[in-house]
Write a structure and sequence with these properties.
Layout lengths: L11 H6 L14 E9 L5 H11 L13 H7 L2 E8 L12 E9 L7 H9 L10 E6 L2 H7 L5 H9 L6 E5 L8 H14 L3 E3 L12 H19 L5 E4 L4 H13 L4 E5 H4 L1 H10 L4 E4 L4 H4 L8 H12 L3 E4 L10 H12 L9 E5 L7 H8 L4 E3 L2 H4 L5 H16 L4 H5 L3 H10 L4
Parallel strand pairs: 5-6, 5-12, 6-7, 7-8, 8-9, 9-10, 10-11, 11-12
Antiparallel strand pairs: 1-3, 1-4, 2-3
């Protein structure tokens, strides 16, 4: 005879005994990770669905199994902290809740400080299959932050590295994205740096090609970076892209460090957040985290997680000292709420984690500087690619135009007014426009 399908907290008797759990957390001395999900209002009881989720993400399975003890439940089983139906309907039956917010408490002992295990726990099993719930908030205890590590140098360390103390930084990337010779890449680095870029990185599609490896690029660009320093007194870090399979990433990180690399770039959406942790612990260099390919993590309203977690909280937790983010005005249909929330996730005060520097990318050009500084303040890096290298006067003029726009905004002057004095800025505004 088939064993009866049952999960603790779902039988009518259990549900009745634990109904207090769906409002506020009962007295509980277990250190918890609090994961909040939104889901379409389930058939039947939202409280029962939350209980199923809590157990299914931790000790439970679709059928009773022997060996589950009270100690296991106390120390490792998920708890329902609260369930909120949206909209809240207290009287009458004409309307009913369409969605439910449910917060599940997961014992921190289950995951240690390991981000892949954390994601498997909060996004795997029931959350990604039978329940179809989207993770909208992830509250982690300080012990998890301490174990995970976070940025090694963070926002302030990047300011120290570049010597830029108060204004928004200018970060650009080498373009065209791929196919350049080492000599051409080094030349574009030099031109962009002399134009005023503070940091320069690889494009996300460039790692190993038949004519370019990360360590080859570090050698070629280090020579130009030294020349730029001798001529200007400015040190311009280069973030070399080492994204790849874990063993090669680690080898590349160490080889690049030994050749004098100043920063590393990792696409965490492809390589994994755990890969960022691995490199951060192995090599003492700042890390630039990239989001390329993170769309499937965030785009579904029924599963996955919100962008502020995927592209803000988690890369910071993993050790990205600076992280690329999207905006609503760069050609991707990101909401303004997610854009602002992601910046907050990267740099707001969090116990045990240094702030990370948000890198604002996607269609950035001088005409957009006023908007971004007004939105986000000075602790950002504006990160144009085409908005620098597509300038009619070339890469040096494109970088100069961005710096002129930044300086004008800091002085409280409209960029159109400043353009009367700066031919590079005037040409940029004519080519790319004066706003969003």
């Amino acid at each position: 005879m088939a064993r009866r399908v049952r999960q603790r907290g779902l039988d009518s008797g259990d549900e009745g005994r634990h109904m207090d759990d769906v409002w506020f957390q009962r007295d509980d001395h277990t250190e918890l990770i609090r994961a909040t999900y939104v889901m379409a209002s389930p058939e039947g009881s939202a409280a029962a669905a939350a209980a199923k989720l809590a157990v299914g993400q931790t000790t439970g399975t679709w059928v009773d199994v022997p060996g589950v003890t009270e100690r296991m439940r106390r120390e490792h089983e998920g708890r329902v902290i609260r369930v909120i139906e949206v909209p809240s309907v207290d009287v009458g039956t004409a309307d009913r809740a369409t969605h439910a917010l449910m917060t599940i408490g997961i014992p921190a002992a289950n995951v240690g400080g390991d981000i892949p295990t954390l994601l498997t726990t909060v996004l795997g099993n029931d959350a990604s299959t039978s329940v179809l719930a989207k993770l909208v908030e992830l509250e982690l205890p300080v012990s998890f932050h301490d174990a995970a590590g976070g940025p090694r140098v963070g926002l302030e360390g990047i300011r120290e590295l570049t010597g830029v103390r108060t204004r928004p930084l200018l970060l650009s990337m080498i373009k065209p994205c791929i196919g350049l010779t080492l000599e051409e890449s080094a030349r574009i680095f030099r031109e962009t740096a002399l134009g005023g870029a503070d940091i320069i990185k690889d494009d996300e599609v460039l790692t190993h090609t038949t004519n370019s490896s990360p360590v080859d690029r570090v050698r070629a660009i280090a020579r130009e970076a030294h020349r730029v320093f001798e001529e200007t007194g400015r040190r311009v870090p280069y973030a070399v892209n080492i994204t790849g399979r874990p063993d090669r990433m680690l080898a590349d990180a160490r080889a690049c460090r030994d050749e004098g690399a100043t920063a590393l770039m990792i696409n965490y959406a492809a390589a994994g957040y755990g890969a960022v942790q691995m490199v951060r612990d192995a090599v003492d260099l700042p890390i630039l985290g990239h989001f390329a390919g993170s769309g499937p993590f965030i785009e579904s309203p029924h599963s996955g997680m919100v962008g502020a977690i995927a592209t803000g909280q988690l890369p910071r937790l993993a050790g990205a000292d600076m992280a690329m983010i999207l905006t609503p005005w760069g050609g991707y249909p990101l909401s303004e709420h997610t854009y602002r929330q992601t910046v907050s996730a990267l740099r707001s005060p969090v116990p045990g984690l240094k702030p990370a520097l948000p890198l604002i990318g996607g269609g950035v050009h001088p005409g957009m500087v006023e908007r971004y500084v007004s939105d986000l303040g000075h602790d950002i890096a504006l990160s144009p690619g085409g908005g620098v290298h597509g300038h009619p006067g070339g890469s040096r003029a494109g970088a100069a135009a961005m710096r002129q726009a930044i300086d004008a905004v800091l002085d409280g002057r409209p960029t159109l007014e400043a353009a009367r004095e700066h031919p590079e800025l005037r040409a940029a505004l004519e080519a790319f426009g004066t706003g969003i």
